[in-house]
Amino acid sequence: MPRPPPPKQHRKPPLSASEDVRWLAAAAGLAARGRPLSRPNPAVGAIVVHDGKVVGLGWTQPGGRPHAEAQALAMAGDRAAGATLYVTLEPCAHDSARGPSCAGLVAASPLARVVVACDDPDPRTARQGMEAIRRAGIRVEVIRSEAAEESLAGYLSLRRRGRPYVTLKLATSLDGCIALANGESHWITGAAARAHCHAMRAKSDAILVGGGTLRADAPRLDVRLPGLEDRSPDRWVLTRGSAPEGWRPLPSPEAIAELADVQYLFVEGGAATAAAFLAAGLVDRLLLYRAPILIGSGLPGIGDLGLASLDDAHGRWRLEERRRLGSDTLDVYSHVPCSPA
Questions:
Q1: Backbone torsions φ then ψ of 55, nearest 5 degrees
Q2: What is the DSSP letter of 32?
Q3: Tens digits of per-residue pLDDT, 82-121?
Q4: How far apart are the C-alpha atoms of 109 and 122, rounded to whole Å?
Q5: How far is CA 251 from CA 208, 211, 214, 242, in A?
Q6: Cα distance between residue 223 and residue 230, in whole Å
Q7: CA 20 to 30 Å from 260, out of 64, 163, 208, 272?
């Protein structure tokens, strides 16, 4: 009888942790290409590396298939032998009518090692994918990557918290106004800031404004960047009544838990809607576009938050990024969860 093949083994020492993190960050960059077209699947990135060189790469394709791992392995072909697969999310463990599980594909491959940045909270996979790969004799390691987790923020929020990842956008004057006292608000920020906002819309599954803003401004809320016009997100309006044609109603901020297939929600105001989401603790990321103008007694960008004291306002936001957009400034803040008492 023929002898069985020897178990898969490492032939070279593993890379340093810093190299692993660097490759995972590169995989996260690939994952960004799939957002939001991979919906309802998460946008995942994968890279196959052999002797320090990329031999295969992939990201989740529109509609969710092919998956990133399948693409990367197909590109690598025979060069996957003895290589390392870097993937931002644990390979799925469940077969479907649309294709086999990625864990099965990886387990059947000649890879020597798999590095996963985040285990999958989906109960159909939930560490089962990694275990299936280990049983095939392939070494599996979980190395946390901030870049990878950020690339999966919407999916992880939906799975772990039961709601989308929410970004609130504000475009204000230096003194925090979004319009003159009479309501005039046309083009507070310049062309570069508006283009950046459209790019952020293109990365979102859904976009939301308040009923007052919809009635007063009739915003289009689409994506008007060349080549990205098909990325316009679903349009929602915060209202307790019916929504006009082309819009979907949301009765309250808390009702975002019912948006089962929305991973990324982009909230564009107005002031009452911004305050409602902030007061409910449902904003994860804040984009503050500021134009170098002063309005004075204008309309504020955010309504009353119901704070009992100034102390309640401190320590809630962390500045992540600041950049110039033409003559305007963009500050990006992330929410700092309250520590348990």
A1: -115, -10
A2: G
A3: 999 999 999 999 877 677 899 999 999 999 999 999 999 9
A4: 24
A5: 12, 10, 15, 9
A6: 8
A7: 272
User: What pTM does this model have?
Assistant: 0.90
Whether the bond into 270 is cis, omega within 30 of 0: yes
Q: Which residues pair with 319 in a beta bridge?
A: 333
Single out the catalytic residue among 19, 69, 258, 320.
69
Are 108 and 74 a contacting pair, CB within 8 Å? no
> CA–CA distance from 309 to each of 45, 140, 276, 306, 312 (Å)?
45, 50, 18, 9, 6
| Whether residue 90 lies in the annotated active site | no
Strands (E), the chain: 45-50, 53-59, 84-87, 113-116, 139-142, 165-172, 177-179, 206-210, 234-238, 248-250, 264-267, 285-290, 299-300, 317-325, 328-335
| Residue type for position 278 | L
Radius of gyration of the chain (CA): 23
Token pair for residue 171?
């475009």
pLDDT digits (tens, 9 = 90+) for 18-51: 899 999 999 999 999 999 999 999 999 999 999 9
CA 115, CA 92: separation in Å to the nearest integer?
Answer: 14
Residue 73, both tokens = 């392995």
In sequence order, what are the beta bridge partners of 267? 168, 208
Q: Yes or no: say if 105 and 80 are a contact pair by the CB < 8 Å rule.
A: no
Cα 17 to chain centroid, rounded = 25
